[in-house]
Design brief:
Among the domains are: 43 residues, Orthogonal Bundle (Arc Repressor Mutant, subunit A); 51 residues. The protein has a four-stranded antiparallel β-sheet with strand order 3-2-1-4. Helix 9 crosses helix 10. The longest helix has 26 residues. The protein is an alpha+beta fold.
């Protein structure tokens, strides 16, 4: 297939447009141009053209992976899933994610710690933290160490209760307990917090 024209795409630093004699237009990247020694007037046989398509697709996947990893902490598993959802092949997604892991740009343990810190800052309990770790595709063997970042959540429970309880009647206490449960706290911790709240209220009378 004859490559009739190669031109840089405006407002980009490393993207080119390839135009072939059959009317096909293709976006490629600087490494593709270099690796295949592309030039206007060049003839590519079927095997070479297929290899170019594969290389361009992987270059696109790598760039998309890098953008996702740069936007926020992300696990290897979540990165691969997002890439496939955006149309990249599973093979390219896995290879691109592996490259970023090897480069230190994607770190499952660091991602897990970040999730725990955010949850702790927002006042979520252990069950909700675990749900988010699972959603982020953090390997299960990393959960326990990351969860240590939650620490003692007694103060968080007390603060949330003070913000929810106004009269202290039984119905309000029940609703407050259910609210804490929805935020991921266990009932043993909730009952302890409710007892502390009752003791504080009695002291204030």
């Amino acid at each position: 297939m004859l490559l009739e024209k190669i031109s840089r795409i405006p407002n980009t630093t490393d993207a080119f447009r390839l135009e072939f004699e059959n009317g096909t237009k293709m976006k490629c990247f600087v490494e593709n141009v270099a690796d295949f020694s592309l030039a206007s007037g060049m003839e590519l046989d079927g095997e070479r053209y297929t290899a170019l398509l594969e290389a361009v697709a992987f270059s696109r996947t790598r760039r998309r992976a890098a953008r996702l990893a740069a936007s926020r902490p992300i696990s290897e598993g979540e990165l691969k899933t997002k890439l496939v959802m955006k149309g990249e092949s599973p093979e390219h997604a896995a290879a691109a994610a592996e490259r970023l892991v090897n480069a230190g740009a994607v770190d499952d343990a660091a991602c897990a710690e970040s999730i725990v810190r955010r949850c702790a800052a927002k006042g979520y309990g252990p069950a909700e933290v675990k749900r988010r770790l699972a959603s982020a595709k953090i390997p299960r063997e990393l959960w326990d160490e990351a969860m240590e970042g939650l620490g003692d959540q007694s103060e968080t429970l007390d603060r949330l209760l003070r913000a929810r309880i106004k009269t202290g009647d039984r119905q309000e206490l029940s609703r407050a307990g259910e609210y804490l449960a929805r935020r991921g706290f266990g009932w043993d911790d909730i009952r302890s917090a409710l007892r502390r709240f009752g003791e504080i209220s009695e002291d204030e009378e």
